[in-house]
Amino acid sequence: MELTLLYIYLGLILTIFVVFKLVDRKSNPLKKTSFWVTEIVSLTILTIGLLFLILRGIGGPIPDDGLHQEFYSNGKRESEFVIKDGTIEGISRHWYANGQLKFYSKYKNGQLIDTSITYLENGQITFFEIFKNGKSIKNISYYDNGQVQSETYNPINPNENNFRKDYHENGKLKFQTIISNSTFNGEGIYYDYNGNIEYKGNYKDGQKEGIWFKFDNSTGQVIDQDTFNFKTPRPFKETWK
User: Fold this and answer.
1) What pLDDT shows up at residue 182?
2) Could you say which of 86, 113, 134 is where a domain stops?
3) Domain limits at 129?
4) Alpha-carbon gap, residue 163 to 154, rounded angstroms
């Protein structure tokens, strides 16, 4: 906060100096290089100070360093984390009122690292996520019955492929796609509740592109097709639903 006020103070002083130079009729400061240098410096410093002040106001006050804990009315812990240099550092935990762990994560320099896990109130995992270099590279979500609902892999290496798999509650595949991590082009397949292919086609820039096919659930034969343009995303046509 002190640094922000210093920037604003210096900026205002230099700005006032510039204004006085302009109203001084004994000379023409517009022809002097020193005048323009002073003006640019004053406006730059003032802008930085005001920007810091605005960002501070949007983000709220910076919390004090050290251990932070919150408690429910029943005395049980609600959350616990450590602040270092204004950001979360180390392990952060949140609990339900019954004492069951709700969320676990780990931070370094304010960024999520390693693994974060979200739990239901009965202790069952509902979401699992892995971070690397500040990026989420893999996550798995679960149905209430414990069955995997979806899993996604987003590698950092541009030469690896992204993939996503969604599942029906009975554990059979519902959707899968493999997309290039550099071009975002690839293939997608939708399945019915019994694991039979329903729709199949390609993606471009992460959107449906070209001809997609609809299959008969019992015979596996193509029974219809639909053409997509990745520049104008839209859902499947109504007759396919």
Assistant:
1) 83
2) 134
3) 63-134
4) 7
Question: Taking the model in full, what pTM does it have?
Answer: 0.69
Is the C-alpha dihedral spanning 48, 49, 53, 56 positive or negative? Answer: positive
**Whether 218 contacts 233, CB under 8 Å:** no
Read off φ and ψ for residue 229, nearest 5 degrees. Answer: -120, 120
* Alpha-carbon gap, residue 14 to 25, rounded angstroms: 19
Give the count of domains, the chain: 3
Nearest Cα residue to 129 out of 148, 108, 147, 153: 153
* Residue carrying structure tokens 């019915």: 192
Rounded CA gap, 59 and 156, in Å? Answer: 29
Q: Say if CB 206 and CB 184 are below 8 A apart.
A: yes
| Residue 70 and residue 125 in one domain | yes
Do the beta carbons of residue 18 and residue 32 sit within 8 Å? no
Residue in 214, 191, 188 with CA at minimum distance from that of residue 201:
188
Helix (H, G, I), strand (E, B) or coil at 67: strand
Measured CA to CA in angstroms, residue 163 lies from 104, 169, 180, 200, 238 at distances of 25, 20, 9, 15, 27
Each residue's pLDDT tens digit, 134-175:
789 999 999 998 999 999 999 888 888 999 999 999 999 999
Q: Which of 33, 59, 85 is the last residue of a domain?
A: 59
- The backbone torsions φ and ψ at residue 171, rounded to the nearest 5 degrees and listed phi first, read 95, -10
DSSP structure class, residue 45: H
Helix (H, G, I), strand (E, B) or coil at 46: helix
Q: Do residues 226 and 237 touch, judged by C-beta distance below 8 A?
A: yes
Kindly tell me the burial class for residue 214, based on how many C-beta atoms sit within 10 Å of its own C-beta (0-12, 13-18, 19 or more): buried
> How many residues are recorded in the chain?
241
